[in-house]
Structure formats: C-alpha cells, structure tokens
Write a structure and sequence with these properties.
Layout (H helix, E strand, L loop, with lengths): L9 E4 L2 E2 L6 E2 L13 E5 L8 E6 L4 E7 L2 E6 L4 E6 L4 E5 L4 E5 L6 E6 L8 E2 L2 H10 L2
Antiparallel strand pairs: 1-9, 2-3, 4-11, 5-10, 5-12, 6-9, 6-11, 7-8, 7-10
Bound molecules: thymidine-5'-diphosphate (TYD).
Thymidine-5'-diphosphate binds next to strand 4 and strand 5.
C-alpha cells in the first residue's frame, strides 16, 4: 500500500458560470475531481456541536463541498494534520485514501455534499484510530 500524505489532499476550484439569474457550478468525474464519481451522499440537519467522520477509508477517494453554510474538515495522515474551512459551493476538498478525517464546526443549515469513487462498503472503513496508526505505520 502506498503511504499517503496529507499534502495530497487539497482544495480544488470548480467552474463557476456567473449569471445575474443565479450562478451555476458543475463537476465532471476525472476532470474536475481526480476520480470517477460512483456515489454521492450528503450530511444535513447537523445539530450544533456535532462531529462527523472520525474514520479513514482504505481505498476511497472523496471530494467534499459545502453546498450551504460552513464546516471544518481536519485531516490526519498519522504524522501530520491539516484543517480546512469549507464555506463555498464553488470549491471543495479532495481527500485521498487512508486519511483520518473529522468534520466539525458545522454552521446552522450547513449541507455537506460528498462525491465518492466507490459504492458504499463498510469493509473500506477503518473506524479505530489505533488500527489506523498501525496500518499507516506498516506502510513505511
Ligand atoms: P458514516 O460514513 O460513518 O458517517 P460520517 O462519516 O458522515 O459521520 O456513515 C453513517 C452511517 O450511514 C453508517 O451506518 C453507514 C451508513 N452509510 C450508508 O449506508 N451509505 C453511505 O453511502 C454512507 C456514507 C453511509
């Protein structure tokens, strides 16, 4: 398994068609995000103070967009951590596999849309932080 670095995860700008009738943004798989999109899910009605995530994915690539409101994403590759604030629908955060992530600081009305490279599979999750550290340690 390739050792992943938090530096691979980055903000990607999306096309924005500005129009007095309302702006439009679009996302094409393998063009605007570095993977083919096989699944879309979203978090909404998140109560103030709630955290989401707290796990890693073995093989999944994801792209996270704040469709409305704002929230923070903290990424951890087992050595380094980076925190991103997402608050616009015309950019998003690309997350490569094997990143421990936590989403928090949700504003009221926030909607977090996630594009994913694979269908849902519980086997792809690493939900125990110590197991995650063991896995990334073993990749050296
Ligand atoms: P989970 O990924 O743990 O939530 P988050 O990381 O956003 O806090 O998923 C929560 C529950 O939803 C879990 O029981 C699995 C289920 N789920 C699906 O059935 N399909 C999906 O595509 C996702 C993302 C989750």
């Amino acid at each position: 398994m390739v050792r992943r670095s938090v530096d691979e995860c980055r903000i990607l700008d999306l096309p924005k068609i500005c129009d007095p009738r309302g702006n439009l943004t679009f996302i094409e798989g393998e063009r605007h995000v570095p993977f083919d999109i096989r699944r879309v899910y979203y978090l909404y009605d998140v109560p103030g103070g709630s955290d989401r995530g707290s796990h890693a994915h073995r093989d999944l690539h994801q792209f996270v967009v704040a469709m409305s409101g704002s929230f923070d994403v903290e990424l951890d590759d087992g050595r380094s951590k980076k925190r991103f604030h997402l608050n616009r629908s015309y950019y998003g955060l690309y997350i490569c596999p094997m990143m421990w992530r936590q989403l928090d600081n949700f504003s009221s009305g926030a909607v977090c849309m996630v594009l994913a490279s694979e269908l849902y599979s519980e086997n792809d999750y690493v939900r125990d932080y110590k197991a995650f550290l063991d896995l990334v340690g073993r990749q050296e």
